[in-house]
């Protein structure tokens, strides 16, 4: 297929560390340009990676007719305005998670991209890793019996970085938005359903802009299924996912940031332990390839924009539960 010509809106660390190398490694991508409000920074990044074009503004990149798709790694509060601007310019959009500040914003973004005829996807790269599909295969096979629940944790300690943008409430800061969104999205995907209610307890830190620095919660699904999780930015690093059934369980270490040499799964049944993998797959490359194939009309979107809207509804409910200290019932169609 013809390579998809990408532009980077912003020079965020995640782009430098993960996404730019993935686009350069992908056989479906052509990283054509990068924009920063600091032209010097854009030029340095372009020179570093051999990116042909550097722009001193996001508007300049969007005006380039050679750019077909953009990746947006900007702070959360900028996701909506630049997604809408990209849609108006006819660019397909891969937007970092969480896709917006709330479900209303996400819905507006989805509708704008649909009206413009461009593809919009939320950048949960781990969902494109083959081990996630393999987990669902194992569950469907009945090997671990009837599904009973999921437990997941994702945390790190960044509390010393007081000036971090993650600590600005108005910009969509907080642990739930930054890392809690991963267990929430995983549970929705593995259960194949939307939750009925949530109860979340959180620690809001006045020393970090009043954002949630730690949170733990219960997410209720139909049939007595549930996700229990904790997440945060002020504790030891953890990153795991456990799916429990009546006859076994599946464990994913490095669940949401899988390294190529540690991206396998472990299945426990009876007295037997089986390891599968490592797969040696770069999930960022897989994400870019799936996005490109959708844009080229070769396959449907793995996760349509409506999935991101539903994810934001759950995130909003979790934060509301933590702030109000009460169980929040969600309307499920």
TrEMBL record:
Keywords: Oxidoreductase
UniProt-listed Pfam families: GFO_IDH_MocA, GFO_IDH_MocA_C3
Superkingdom assignment: Bacteria
Any one GO molecular-function label of the UniProt entry: oxidoreductase activity
Domain GFO/IDH/MocA-like oxidoreductase: 133-251
Gfo/Idh/MocA-like oxidoreductase N-terminal domain: residues covered: 4-121
Record-linked InterPro entries: Gfo/Idh/MocA-like_OxRdtase_N, Gfo/Idh/MocA_domain, GFO_IDH_MocA-like_dom, NAD(P)-bd_dom_sf
Protein's name according to its UniProt entry: Gfo/Idh/MocA family oxidoreductase
Provenance organism: Cohnella pontilimi
